[in-house]
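Intended use. Records such as the MHS family MFS transporter entry shown here are meant for training and evaluating sequence-to-structure methods. They are not intended to support clinical decisions.
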Amino acid sequence: MPASLPQRAPQTASSEAAALATAHDNNAVAPGKIWQVITASSVGTVIEWYDFYIFGSLTPIISTLFFPEGNPVAALLSTLALFATGFVVRPFGAIVFGRLGDLVGRKYTFLLTLLLMGGSTFCIGVVPTYAQIGLSAPLILLVLRLVQGLALGGEYGGAATYVAEHAPDNRRGYYTSFIQTTATVGLFVSIAVIVGTRMAVGDAAFKDWGWRIPFLVSFFLIIASYYIRRRLHESPLFAQMKAQGKTSTSPVRDSFVKPENRRLVLLALFGATMGQGVVWYTGQFYAYFFLQTVLKIDLVPASTILCLALLLGTPFFVYFGGLSDRIGRKRIIMTGLLCAVLFTFPLFYGLHAFAGPITEVTPASVDAAGKAVPAVLKALSPNIPMLTVLVFCLVLFVTMVYGPIAAYLVELFPTKVRYTSLSLPYHVGNGIFGGLVPLIATALVAWAAAQPSGFLREYSIYFGLLYPVVVALICLLIGSAKMKDIRNVRIMD
């Protein structure tokens, strides 16, 4: 556990105030420098999230191009499984790059993760389709998704640690909350680029070749971000510790073998990040997926709904991060989990109600080759304002659980193993529990819909929500009972 303020000799009122100011100023980093650090860290992290999410946003198209024809449900599930592999491998990236960050430094490590993410994303944009190279296409795609997941596993911990180790103690929640906006902003940018590309080239061309453009654009974004990050210096706390020879020689062992630190890792996972992960992916990513695949709302209106909700919700990451400096991290995170448990089902029910009737735009038919062409179903009159309000409520829960989480994790672990220790529970919570939400929820919906009759089949579209709600409830119970509300403590060992 991070140490409390050290004992000081008696001082005059003025000298004690100055000492406290210095203690709360942590590294005595100038405000201008902090904003430079936040900007450089956030820009790179936004781009990495952009790279990661364009794959998920384009899942319906990728499933038709990289898997055999004939079973669209199986192709969709296979593509979601590929998407999920990027999440599953994130904890391994957390260990590999977390160890590197605690041994070598924060700056060097998240420069490396940036290049790996950008390179693999660009390559996805040039991979031939199944029709061109057969099974090699999904296999190459799998390898590139694994590289993406490894890179992202090292990115977040580095960015959050780097910003936190520059921030003053009494405003750590506020400053690190800007890093918390990057996942949402990255998702927003990915959707904006996808929609803009589709509108520019047309629907037919987009499905044929235009879908590659968002992946290829990543190359230019990565180069710009790499240039910005190269100008940064190492974290002052890590640099000081390294100069004093106090860095860990075995961050993985110190993080996960020593009982006192292992207990903190498990508490962070099951009391905070597990629930935060499922709330994030349900409120933002699965909601977007639900609008398109279940409610049959077209890409452009579905994207408009989510983008408006994200624009309205993003400032609340900063609000709740700053509020956690005053009232504590735990109270806000647990409130967000409680809201998600209570209101996820009603909000998704509302999405269904305001999506309007689903109409068969193109009837089922047979093409020139004699193959069956399924009917095209669409929601022709969705209530965009009300749908936006409902998705915004889901996003608001996300901001409550996610806004304070970086500051909480940073303050939980000592400097010499901070990168490794916070990265693993974060990426297990988000990568495993959260990242599997689309796949598990879709599989549960498909299973319930396949039942011969009864309650399960009638309400099958909501059945997938059981997974995130139950996980959030378990995390709420563990976190409420076991988490301690630490905040504004000195984080230098």
